[in-house]
Amino acid sequence: xxxxxxxxxxxxxxxxxxxxxxxxxxxxxxxxxxxxxxxxxxxxxxxxxxxxxxxxxxxxxxxxxxxxxxxxxxxxxxxxxxxxxxxxxxxxxxxxxxxxxxxxxxxxxxxxxxxxxxxxxxxxxxxxxxxxxxxxxxxxxxxxxxxxxxxxxxxxxxxxxxxxxxxxxxxxxxxxxxxxxxxxxxxxxxxxxxxxxxxxxxxxxxxxxxxxxxxxxxxxxxxxxxxxxxxxxxxxxxxxxxxxxxxxxxxxxxxxxxxxxxxxxxxxxxxxx
Length: 273
Fold this sequence. Notes:
about 270 residues
């Protein structure tokens, strides 16, 4: 959301650049690890994105574990009812999409939905609050929305990509995996190069579309919140509140899309052409 107080003595460009800069650490040629001097270094680690993604994942695991441990049939708490609703919603979505048999798919869908939802939810925290608190303790940059970091979304998509390969080989065998990408859609040996290029591009497009869709939507939303925060404090809450209300719909929708596409891709690995 929009923050109080504007952006002080910073220019508009400096304010936007500061909020879009990750807290980074990298190893330089001398062998030393340095902070925030990683421009152009492909091995730089976005420490803030890593911290918040792991932190939110731990919150998810602990809260759901606590509900499972203390669940009650007689008089469930409101939080237990909310967790049960989420679990049932994800379970029914998985059953409607995935027709195979696997104990991993439903927990995977639940993990993806809740984890991505929590990452997206951080976008509703006013853009200046946590970064300014971080500055007070000497941390110059702090991005708190992991899903606005393409490295995070692409890492998640690569995990899904690996699962697609694993499940294709598990369900169809190595021979079936090779056949699927060489003899489809044209079942003739002369068309193997064409089939391989066509199916290979389709396979590689899956993780790219997953990662870029989530990143693009959340990055654009965060940028709009930053632009709203540059308005005078006495007016920024009007467009900021309106955008936050609209964004409440985007947050679960993007989590649901990421989860659904993951299950669909794995289901396609299970199905025969």
